[in-house]
Specification:
heterodimer, A: 446 residues, alpha+beta, 6-stranded antiparallel sheet, 5-stranded mixed beta barrel, 24% helix, B: 480 residues, 10 helices, 24 strands, 40% strand, globular
């Protein structure tokens, strides 16, 4: 059993007030993560993890230090508090440190947590078996996961911040594979168990795999592309990480420095960070206990601004948008709940409007080539098709792209009307499909 | 800790496990970072818990908890058994394990000066000094210096009778200068990017890096990159430095020779492999120059240990011998697929996670060249140093790497500097084009403490021995 919400709230408040620092902040996270993993049409890993973590940030004047422990007995908490104070004592003064934030009104949704009991070991095994069956029946091999994360977060500080919330989330993925390079993908992320239909998820991946068998060559070059939501989510993740964090902005390493208030994308492109959206997952306050605010990043194609925490809000004289990560971290505040505004096109309409182009189901191993121009490289996988005369014609082997995200977003021809919540690096992106005029494929796996 | 392991094994057995193992892991860490003259983070932490793995009805279950009371451990053991029973409902064939002897042993990694006993003042002073030096170049607008320390003590026990206690300390440090101008940011790092070099060892390893002594060159090169020409797009001869060879080995040899990937167990996340089991002993992976080993016995490497997390002794094995695929990295379960015993590559990211096949120290064995001679032997090409971007497909065939800095080679000499150098290729073609590797004087083990794999994600500390190497007909300057 993980610790209750009230229990971790009590621990956070006690820990924050027990240091001998000028002020202090404590964050407690308690979680149970259960994951059933399958491959080769059988479950090969079935794991659970139960843990709690306390982190204390101690402040002496403008000096700060952080210590953490997963042992929540009194002795360990006392030791953790002393270590945080010791770290602060040795840290040099930081004249930019504004002090720990004060309480702000929070909107804490009350959530009934049923996913862990609904998808216990047997429930996850049943779901996995239903997914597997769809591939097995068609002579394909399935791999993927069914997982539940049930967790609670409490943040308290000596300025009376006292925020706590519990939530859960369900994730399922499936990769169906077959002869001739057949490969199809499906995924689900969310809190609504009613949307998780394992057989349907397994079936759609298997159908995509069957359709992708016998992939052929395609000469690398610049093509019109239709990117499915998972592929879009990948590039939104990198755009947020590279461009819209206040630390990169303050350091001058974000494209935003030279683009604030200017057009950086097509006028149809609006991108927000919104942890409060009912369609997303996560908690409604950040790791300083401040409300996570819906924050425009790009609106009508115009770059609006970075997300902040209390430190960078003060340093940049901007509002605190509530995007603090656990202190300390090398990234500063980041947008982890990005959503792109939906358009009005169906996927069929987007594909139907393309004379010759490429359809991408998702990307693999995307990385940064040029951070300030947001140039990324990566591979396609699990369903890449040539589009000819408005329809998916033939599957093509996986392609490598090397492409500026900003250039691509300035060349958006249509945006999908349906969005999908996709898991990313530490967050989730709500992404539609995109029709992009020019996308540079720079290589292909032979 | 041994009592906790015994409690777990007894509970798993009583619940019906036909095999079980348990690991109690106690770790502590300290992370210090300085960024552009400001101490960016001073953080320490500790973690303690137990992970219990059980086989029931021919399937695996794994449960981990930080509740180390008898009740907590017993509940976790029962949970592992229940998870195995649930997994067995989809079983195709019962899990079988290659044999291993039962060991009762202790192992300790090298460490002269425990870094946790060195004062924070001394550590921060060293970082701040290096940071000061980096910022003497005005174009260097952002700087980063950091140190990370990790201390681990763990006890492994199994129902087959092993009881193994191991402890080690890791130390890591490095610095990076970011020159920013005219809409671009160019970085230069020492001794490697992403936090620098990581070793098993103590404070002595940090001092040996001499961060302040290398800071002037790093800052100068970062500044010079701003006015350097872009790397031209062409097919040419490429020499890459040892640290980049290490990452090239990691991505295009290390991962594809992990037998769990080959068997499809990682397909949905990390991917599979372009290599198959029938390729063993048959496949030409690279040129005659290319011999690659997997070695968990190299002193000071973060890929070293006494026993892996299945209780298998550390070993040295050949993965590629004179260009031919001759081995895989294995576990007790997967080794049976190739009729071998495990070569000891199973490791977990802490007590919370089930062991996976992870690289140990996977190394390109040294050749015979001195670097100066190799450059002198190259009429036309490029020399690239220090990775700053990596990407490879899900079968580990199609890769693209970016480096921090490059120089043209003309008539056997380094010429003008180029910025944003990158190169791309296909794994067997690239390794097949390797015609020269530098000698042991240039060979070094590079620690890579950020290797992600598995679901839930696990981050492994692995390493690669490498020396500069030369490759022919490589496509450089992609999309430049």
């Amino acid at each position: 059993m993980r610790r209750s919400l009230e229990e971790i709230r009590t621990i956070a408040n006690r820990a924050a007030h027990m240091t001998r620092a000028d002020s202090a902040e404590a964050v407690v996270i308690s979680s149970i993560s259960a994951l059933t993993r399958f491959a080769g049409n059988r479950i090969h890993q079935n794991v659970t993890e139960t843990d709690s973590q306390l982190s204390i940030r101690a402040v002496l004047g403008t000096r700060t230090g952080v210590a953490s422990t997963n042992r929540l007995d009194n002795e360990a908490i006392t030791r953790c508090a002393a270590a945080a104070v010791d770290a602060a004592r040795h840290a040099p003064k930081d004249p930019d440190f504004p002090g720990l934030p004060k309480p702000a009104p929070l909107s804490i949704p009350s959530r009934s947590l049923s996913l862990l009991s609904m998808y216990d070991a047997e429930g996850r095994a049943r779901a996995a078996a239903q997914i597997i069956q769809q591939s097995d029946a068609r002579g394909l091999v399935a791999a993927g996961t069914v997982s539940v994360n049930d967790y609670a977060v409490a943040v308290a500080n000596t300025h009376d911040v006292d925020a706590s919330m519990q939530t859960d989330e369900l994730r399922a993925t499936v990769l169906a594979m077959g002869e001739g390079g057949a490969s199809g993908w499906g995924s689900l992320l969310g809190r609504d168990a009613g949307t998780f239909l394992p057989a349907q998820l397994g079936s759609s991946a298997a159908t995509l795999a069957e359709r992708s068998a016998g992939a052929g060559d395609l000469e690398p070059g610049t093509y019109t592309v239709v990117l499915a939501p998972e592929a879009v989510a990948d590039i939104l993740d990198f755009l947020g990480y590279l461009g819209f964090g206040a630390k990169a902005f303050a350091e001058g390493s974000s494209f935003l420095v030279n683009a604030l208030g200017t057009r950086v994308a097509d006028t149809c492109v609006s991108i927000y960070d919104d942890a409060l959206s009912p369609a997303t997952i996560g908690i409604s306050f950040d790791y300083e206990g401040q409300p996570r605010r819906r924050t425009p990043l790009i609106e009508g194609g115009v770059a609006i601004g970075p997300v902040t925490d209390s430190y960078f809000a003060a340093k940049l004289d901007r509002p605190d948008t509530g995007h603090a990560l656990p202190a300390p971290n090398p990234y500063g505040p980041l947008p982890l709940n990005i959503e792109m505004q939906a358009g009005d096109a169906t996927l069929d309409e987007m594909i139907g409007s393309v004379e010759r182009g490429v359809y991408v189901t998702r990307f693999h191993y995307v990385n940064v080539e040029d951070p300030m121009k947001v140039v990324l490289t990566g591979m396609t996988r699990d369903g890449t098709f040539l589009i000819e005369n408005g329809r998916l014609s033939t599957p093509v082997r996986n392609l490598r792209f090397t492409q500026s995200v900003l250039s691509a977003l300035s060349d958006v021809r249509a945006i999908g009307s349906k969005r999908q919540l996709c898991g990313g690096e530490g967050g989730a992106a709500l992404a539609p499909a995109l029709l992009i005029g020019h996308w540079a494929f720079t290589g292909q796996t032979g | 800790m041994k009592d906790l392991v015994a409690t777990a094994l007894n509970a798993a057995r009583a619940a019906g496990a036909t095999y079980a193992d348990a690991r109690v892991v106690e770790s502590r860490h300290q992370r210090l970072s300085v960024r552009t003259g400001r101490v960016d983070g001073v953080e320490s932490g500790e973690s303690l818990g137990i992970g219990i793995r059980a086989i029931v009805d021919g399937a695996w279950g794994f449960a981990a908890t930080s509740d180390l009371s008898t009740d907590g451990i017993t509940a976790a053991a029962r949970e592992a058994v229940a998870l195995a029973r649930a997994a067995a409902t989809t079983s195709r064939r019962p899990v079988a394990l290659a044999p291993v002897n039962a060991y009762t042993d202790t192992w300790t990694g090298p460490c002269e000066t425990d870094p946790f006993t060195v004062s924070l003042d001394d550590k921060l002073a060293l970082l701040l000094l290096a940071d000061d030096v980096l910022r003497t170049e005005t174009a260097v607008r952002v700087t980063s210096t950091s140190m990370n320390f990790l201390g681990v003590r763990k006890v492994f026990g199994s129902t087959e009778g092993s009881l193994i206690e191991q402890s080690y300390v890791e130390s890591q440090a490095g610095l990076t200068a970011f020159a920013i101008g005219d809409g671009e940011m160019l970085s230069r790092s020492y001794p490697n990017n992403l936090g620098g070099q990581a070793v098993q060892g103590g404070w002595e390893a940090i001092l040996a890096l001499d961060l302040p002594g290398h800071a002037p060159r790093v800052a100068e090169e970062a500044t010079a990159l701003l006015s350097a020409a872009p790397c031209p797009a062409r097919e040419t001869t490429l020499i890459i430095d040892a640290s980049q060879v290490a990452l090239q080995v990691h991505e295009s040899i290390g991962h594809p020779t992990e037998l769990d990937r080959i068997l499809g167990d990682e397909a949905a996340f990390a991917g599979t492999s372009w290599v198959g089991i029938p390729d063993l002993g048959m496949l030409r992976y690279g040129s005659e120059q290319v011999t690659v080993t997997s070695d968990a016995t190299i002193p000071g490497s973060i890929g070293s240990f006494g026993y892996d997390d299945e209780g298998v002794p550390a070993q040295r094995d050949h993965l590629i011998t004179n260009g031919v695929l001759t081995g895989f990295q294995t576990s007790r379960e997967s080794a049976l697929a190739i009729d071998r015993t495990s070569n000891g590559c199973m490791r977990a990211d802490g007590w919370q996670r089930q062991p996976l096949i992870r690289m140990t120290t996977v190394s390109l064995e040294p050749g015979e060249w001195a670097l100066d001679d190799l450059i002198a032997d190259t009429d036309d090409g490029f020399y690239f140093e220090t990775n700053n971007s990596w990407s490879i497909d899900d079968r580990r065939l199609n890769f693209q790497f970016g480096c921090e800095i490059g120089w043209e080679i003309k008539n056997g000499e380094l010429g003008r500097m180029v910025k944003n150098p990158n190169y791309t290729g296909i794994t067997p073609e690239f390794w097949g084009s390797c015609d020269a590797i530098c000698n042991r004087d240039h060979w070094q083990v590079w620690g890579i403490p950020n290797c992600g794999k598995g679901e839930p994600m696990q981050v492994a500390h692995v390493a690669h021995g490498a020396a500069p190497a030369r490759f022919r007909n490589v496509r450089v300057g992609v999309a430049r």
